[in-house]
Amino acid sequence: MGSRASTLLRDEEIEEIKKETGFSHSQITRLYSRFTSLDKGENGTLCREDFQRIPELAINPLGDRIINAFFPEGEDQVNFRGFMRTLAHFRPIDDHEKNKDPNVSEPLNSRNNKLLFAFRLYDLDKDDKISRDELLQVLRMMVGVNISDDQLGSIADRTIQEADQDGDSFISFTEFIKTANTSLEPWARLPGTTLHHCHC
Prior knowledge:
By secondary structure, this protein is mainly α. It is 56% helix and 4% strand.
């Protein structure tokens, strides 16, 4: 299967994906093999149902949110390039990538892009701010019935209070970043958050 993957992916495509995502040649061919095995329709794209067959996503309380991150607004299919761009957010940051030329756009796995990815998991209505209700919905997804509504409300209120600097009762991306720069609290206390694993 590995040889099939490398023959269907042209060398110039691999080089472009390497530059864009930072993945190595062998990582790209392995991920292409995985992509093609998930592509049940054999049409070169994945749909949400293809992702839902991944056991780790099926059991993850934020699985649907993570799956949605692979699909641009209004799209119901993702090709291999889009798949790789989203996966790049999860790649650890290499030391040589931290000191890139300022004229070059920052890598998809930069700390800022990882934080933006995490922020979007909470911004359910995509209005570029996190409301108390959105925070509560995500908390419910993550903890289910293990914590009472009062406790969840208390966590949401405290999180908004600590992060909201302009007093509008929302968390903007700028406030999200400032909170993360000060400390990963309060985000680190939210169970299941990707910041636990993003190697920021």
